[in-house]
């Protein structure tokens, strides 16, 4: 059977950007004894909006191990249709000469790629087309039942000229999200990963290529991200939980101090740029060179 492994536009441009809703405004750091580390400015975490593209500064005061252990303890943002402020209107931080909005970028990217509208893509994945705004409310009732949800619905109608057939794919898919991707994004992501797996004749679970025995396949399946982190870093085996994607506060080590909020950290830095002629190479100052 011929299976196309190519990455679909609807996957790369809309559905797999669902994960942006999980990003917190900063990153906790800690050691193996559960001591969480503040920044040099006294913030409880490294704030994203002030540190985009500044890995040299971040790693001067941090280690990879501290960041991995901190993230293992830190809870992500809710899986919903909301993006935190550090990526919504402060992307990509002080080293960019214009602050951008990741949500707006995702919408524009879909239009630049010529994606079909939300309802059309639903139909292409054998999902029922929505006929009214009430149908959209029915998919994710918890989002629209509160006061802010009713205001959101009003703005959607105004932005899309009261036509549900005008909704951008990214917006429609995100509005379905409640504790995980909604029906459409789930279908798109499942289709993509299934095709990538089934089209790869060297996939480790493909018994017909003769690469691995059933026993070896079973052993590979047991390898987790915990195994990789513990074997590739100096983090002790008991310093992070076995399933690093989930945290159980009653059994796992080092729960986070509190769910991180932007208000707990210093305001984002102002815009700035690099002076490339200030760079020093050895004892020679590039700034002294004629321009």
Quick overview of this protein structure:
The chain has 291 residues and is an all-alpha fold. It has helices at residues 9-13, 55-60, 64-73, 85-88, 102-112, 118-124, 133-139, 141-144, 147-159, 169-175, 183-198, 214-221, 225-232; strands at residues 26-27, 46-47, 280-281, 284-285. Heme b binds at residue 20.
Pick out its properties.
single chain; 291 residues; mainly alpha; Myeloperoxidase, subunit C; two-stranded antiparallel sheet; two-stranded antiparallel ribbon; 3% strand; globular; disordered C terminus
Q: How does this structure look, described?
A:
The protein is an all-alpha fold and 291 residues long. It has one domain (9-115, 168-275): Myeloperoxidase, subunit C (Orthogonal Bundle). Helices cover 36% and strands 3% of the residues. It contains 13 helices and four strands. A two-stranded antiparallel ribbon has the order 1-2. The protein has a two-stranded antiparallel ribbon with strand order 3-4. InterPro entries: Haem_peroxidase_animal, Haem_peroxidase_sf, Haem_peroxidase_sf_animal. GO terms for molecular function: heme binding; metal ion binding; peroxidase activity.
């Amino acid at each position: 059977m011929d299976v196309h492994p190519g990455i679909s536009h609807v996957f790369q441009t809309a559905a797999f950007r669902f994960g942006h809703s999980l990003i917190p405004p900063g990153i906790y750091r800690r050691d193996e004894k559960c001591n969480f580390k503040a920044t040099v400015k006294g913030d409880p975490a490294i704030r994203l909006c002030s540190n985009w593209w500044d890995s040299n500064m971040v790693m001067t005061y941090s280690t990879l191990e501290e960041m991995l252990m901190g993230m293992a303890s830190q809870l992500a943002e809710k899986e919903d249709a909301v993006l935190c402020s550090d990526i919504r209107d402060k992307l990509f931080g002080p080293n960019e000469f214009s602050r951008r909005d990741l949500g707006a970028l995702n919408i524009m990217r879909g239009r630049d790629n010529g994606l079909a509208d939300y309802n059309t893509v639903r139909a292409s994945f054998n999902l029922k087309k929505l006929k009214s705004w009430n149908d959209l409310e029915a998919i994710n009732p918890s989002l629209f039942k509160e006061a802010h949800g009713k205001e959101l619905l009003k703005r959607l109608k105004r932005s899309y000229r009261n036509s549900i057939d005008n909704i951008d794919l990214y917006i429609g898919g995100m509005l379905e999200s409640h504790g995980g991707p909604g029906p459409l994004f789930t279908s798109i992501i499942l289709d993509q990963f299934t095709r990538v797996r089934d089209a790869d004749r060297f996939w480790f679970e493909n018994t017909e290529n003769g690469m691995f025995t059933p026993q070896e396949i079973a052993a590979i399946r047991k390898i987790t991200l915990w195994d990789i982190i513990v074997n590739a870093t100096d983090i002790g085996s008991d310093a992070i939980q076995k399933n690093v994607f989930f945290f159980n506060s009653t059994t796992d080590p080092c729960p986070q101090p509190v769910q991180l909020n932007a208000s707990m950290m210093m305001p984002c830095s102002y815009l700035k740029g690099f002076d490339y002629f200030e760079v020093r190479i050895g004892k020679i100052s590039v700034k002294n060179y004629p321009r």
